[in-house]
Amino acid sequence: MIKIRLFKAQDADQVAQLFHQTVREVNARDYSSAQVNAWAPDDIHFRDWVAVCLSRFTYVAEEAGAIAGFAELEPDGHIDCFYCHKDYQRRGVGSQLYQAIEAKALELPVSRLFVEVSITAKPFFQRMGFAIVKEQTVARRGETFTNFAMEKILYAF
Fold it and tell me: Is 137 helix (H, G, I), strand (E, B) or coil?
């Protein structure tokens, strides 16, 4: 049974591994090997996972001690990382993480959620009610990527 909870410092290694494996194995369907290697470099600790994850609302989906996914919400409504483990794709993990993010956003209160998503993640966010604002090209470590700026209006002030 999947449990959604807030990130703890001891989750950092599992979260870093999950990010790396997901990009390398799941996003590889939509991006070249050079692009996924730039996106998820061999040094999986290119980011200080503890500091970043603790500086925002980071939710993890856990099952029997294993992290099945994670998602980060910044206080302004920006969703940063949102990844589900390759073995938990299409099993409701992303939906459960998203529900936790939206509930926190409404509690803050944030009137709009916004995110930059991969080609791979675009259909998921569309199912969650997000609209494409624009297609864009971004650069990471010498590679360019197509992604999509998307948003969802939660309520109008």
Answer: strand
Q: Which residue has the tokens 């791979």?
A: 120
As a dihedral over the C-alpha atoms of residue 49, residue 116, residue 92, residue 59, rounded to 10 degrees, the angle is 30
Please provide residue 155's backbone torsions phi and psi, each rounded to the nearest 5 degrees: -170, 160
CB environment 6-32: b (16+ within 10 A), e (fewer):
ebeeebbebbbebbbbbbbebbbeebe
CB 69 within 8 A of CB 9: no
Mean pLDDT of the chain: 91
| Per-residue model confidence as pLDDT tens digits over 87-104 | 998 889 999 999 999 999
What is 43-103 written as a DSSP string? -TTSS-HHHHHHTSEEEEEEETTEEEEEEEE-TTSEEEEEEE-GGGTTTTHHHHHHHHHHH
Residue ranges of the chain whose pLDDT lies below 70: 44-47, 53, 156-157
| Three-state secondary-structure class, residue 118 | strand
